[in-house]
Design brief:
Its EC number is 7.2.2.21. By secondary structure, the protein is α+β, with helices and mostly antiparallel strands. The chain is built from 24 helices and 26 strands. The strands form five sheets. Strands 14-26-25-24-15-22-23 form a seven-stranded mixed sheet, sandwiched between helices. Strands 6-5-7-13-8-11 form a six-stranded antiparallel sheet, with no helix packed on it. The chain has a six-stranded antiparallel sheet with strand order 16-21-20-19-18-17, with helices on both faces.
Length: about 700
């Protein structure tokens, strides 16, 4: 498939028409033309000359790939062009208006005609072609109205119709352009080149030629070219472009960095781990572009509706023209005029625009916050969700063990930390790492054990300064008689859902360490914010045992929880929940992928596994849930605005149509009701892009 950028598309309806024509060409059946992104995808076998001809009939054209600069100039040029023509025709209109009283009418009519042609000729030509083919759309309606107004000598009004329609097209273009622009701003985050170090020589290369294993040099203020690992240097990095997080993140040796993030102060040497097209940033940009190309159920409905609606309006207009004069002896002239006004009221412009600008704005706003919505459909879904299922580990908790409780039975507390630290310092076991974090805080001096032996399923036996010590679970202290106090403490820690590590010597238990998976600081406030944002059920699903699950659920405030679940049980649970409402599932691991795919909406944590991110419909690029409530608020706002837009578009038309009953509908009112609706719908949709600062507090 070949991909082209198309410029000059005048409306979503026209784009759909063009797509239909291109599909009727030889090999063209797989063609897609997307109005939101202005992208045309066609089979390479299709004859481009014919495609260009179809496009030119509608005033559109394929942009030659002279990079963005060229295209920007053209769309800018087109905008200026239209603006200039509108100004000229408005000036001519006013001159004619004032001359009407003084001079000969031919001159005045000539001025009106010129003004009409300048501002409305494109519409007029398209409309005539459509009329001949008996194809009805906006342009056809406007053309019929213009011809009608001229035929009954309503020059002044015909000119206003042409000027206002031109203005409408211009404003419509600006609205969509603005939504697209803010989308393109996102895409500008991508770095264009990288400084590669080869044999001590710095060389600037284009980003596409970067390969895995290259070492790149990133100076302060420069963008990191692709995902990689720091091999030398220390600096703080601004990852806002990827995660939406504004706070800089410290990076040093061995830490991973994302392409597109900005190096703040030090010089970093980075080993590239992913070529640019596989980097997080490229994936984000690709997803965001694709997201605009999927049609939402509402959009599909509106498009179908517009197809039947336009001919219906034409029938109503004809009835308005003929019924009063034929059956009630009214004036032909007056009712012919009313019929023309009905045609103009019938323009489905505002209706067709109700959805796309709002959807693009919503996707863009979320992407700015590091939340990737993979399509308009999912944005619409997110606004309808009432149940969210969370995986526990790595989502509500950090997914890494930390020491929550220590009970020491010997008098010298430092001695306890010294022994357990000396034994655990060389172990790579996650529990040992958690204990070492705690030991480091106490700053005790550690020994090197003379002997160390690992007993599988139990723990470690070590010899330190001639004395033997045991570290591990309860089985590791089977050589001891345990006192009632220690027994009670062990039971209590188990009750609390903690994992136990015991330290003993030959005579007694020296102390207990209770370890748990640390709950993320923001989990509780996020769950609360979700409930406030209208999510009724928050459900935690985990493979962990009942006690641990109960403790986490209580602390974070979810409405219900289920423990001891295998991946397939999670899928079953999600299906059960889906019977009661719209369910989103949030997870980060491979084991979550099946459940993410089953839910109405799958949401993955950005630092999660690739399979979870691939399967999910929405990806949170931060490693926490902090931005989720605002994403849901944005989605709900988009849904509300689309509903409001549709009611406004249809409501204003209905009001104008009701004016025909007393015969009060004028072409002016007709145009203003149509134009007013279009402008309102566009402006209301663009409000989604305004960040509402107070909602982004939960970081």
């Amino acid at each position: 498939m070949e991909e082209y950028r198309i410029k000059g598309l005048s409306c979503a309806h026209c784009a759909a028409e063009i797509e239909k024509k291109i599909r009727s060409l030889e090999h063209g059946e797989s063609a897609t033309l997307n109005y939101n992104t202005g992208k045309l995808k066609i089979d390479e076998k299709v004859d481009l000359k014919q495609v260009e001809k179809i496009l030119s009939e509608d005033g559109a054209f394929i942009e030659k790939t002279q990079a963005h600069h060229h295209e920007h100039e053209h769309s800018h040029h087109q905008g200026v062009n239209l603006k200039f023509l509108l100004i000229v025709s408005t000036a001519l209109y006013f001159i004619a208006f004032f001359l009407e009283k003084q001079t000969n009418s031919f001159l005045v009519i000539g001025l009106y005609l010129i003004a009409m042609v300048i501002s409305g000729y494109q519409t007029f030509l398209k409309g005539l072609k459509n009329l001949i083919k008996l194809k009805f759309n906006i342009d056809t309606l406007m053309t019929v109205a213009l011809i009608g107004a001229i035929s009954i000598g309503e020059w002044k009004e015909a000119t206003v119709v042409a000027i206002l329609f031109g203005l409408n097209e211009y404003l419509e273009g600006i609205g969509m352009e603005k939504a697209r622009k803010s989308m393109e701003k996102l895409l500008e985050v991508a770095p264009k080149q990288a400084t590669v170090l080869k044999d001590g020589i710095e060389k600037v290369v284009p980003i596409e030629s970067l390969q895995v294993g290259d070492i790149v040099l990133v100076k302060p203020g420069e963008k990191i070219p692709s995902d990689g690992v720091v091999v030398e240097g220390k600096s703080s990095v601004n990852e806002a472009a990827i995660t939406g997080e504004s706070l800089p993140v410290e990076k040093e040796n061995g830490e991973t960095v994302f392409g597109g993030s900005i190096n703040n102060e030090g010089i970093l040497k980075i080993e590239i781990t992913k070529s640019y097209e596989d980097s997080s940033l490229a994936k984000i940009l690709h997803l965001v572009e694709e997201a605009q190309e999927t049609k939402t159920p509402t959009e599909l409905f509106i498009n179908r509706f517009a197809k039947y609606y336009t001919p219906l309006i034409m029938i109503v207009a004809v009835l308005v023209m003929v019924i009063p004069p034929l059956f009630f002896g009214a004036e032909w002239n007056k009712w012919f005029y009313q019929g023309l006004a009905v045609l103009i009221v019938g323009c489905p412009c505002a209706l067709i625009l109700s959805s796309p600008i709002a959807i693009v704005s919503g996707i863009t706003r979320n992407a700015r916050n590091g939340i990737l919505v993979k399509g308009g459909v999912f944005l619409e879904q997110l606004g309808k969700i009432n149940t969210i299922a969370f995986d526990k580990t790595g989502t509500l908790t950090k997914g890494e063990p930390h020491v929550e409780k220590v009970t020491v039975y010997i008098d010298d507390q430092d001695e306890f930390y010294r022994i357990i630290g000396s034994i655990e310092k060389n172990s790579s076991h996650p529990l040992a790492k958690a204990i070492m974090k705690k030991v480091v805080e106490t700053e005790v001096a550690l020994h090197d054990p003379e002997e160390i032996e690992t007993v599988s399923g139990q723990g470690i036996i070590a010899l330190i300064q001639g004395k033997r010590y045991w570290v591990g679970n309860e089985k590791s202290i089977s050589h001891l008689q345990i006192t009632e106090k220690v027994k009670a403490d062990i039971e209590k820690m188990k009750e609390e859902g903690l994992t136990l590590v015991l330290l003993a010597d030959e005579r007694q238990v020296m102390g207990l360490v209770g370890i748990s998976d640390e709950i993320r600081e923001e989990s509780k406030s996020v769950i609360k914010a979700l409930h406030q944002a209208g999510i009724q059920h928050t459900v935690m699903l985990t493979g962990d045992h009942q006690k641990t699950a109960e403790k986490v659920a209580r602390k974070v405030g979810v409405t219900e929880y289920y423990a001891n679940l295998l991946p397939e049980d999670k899928v079953e649970k999600v299906k059960e929940l889906a019977l009661k409402g719209k369910v989103a599932m949030i997870g980060d691991g491979i084991n979550d992928a099946p459940a993410l795919a089953t839910a109405d909406l799958g949401i993955a944590m950005g630092k999660g596994t690739d399979s979870a991110i691939e399967t999910a419909d929405i990806v949170l690029m931060q490693d926490h849930l902090g931005k989720l409530p605002s994403a849901i608020r944005t989605a709900k706002k988009v849904n509300r605005i689309i509903k409001l837009n549709i009611s406004l578009a249809l409501g204003l038309k209905l009001l104008a149509l009701l004016l025909t009953i007393p015969g009060l509908l004028t072409l002016w009112i007709a145009i203003l009701s149509d134009m007013g609706a279009t402008i309102l719908v566009t402006l209301i949709s663009l409000t989604i892009l305004w960040e509402n600062k107070e909602h982004n507090v939960i970081n």
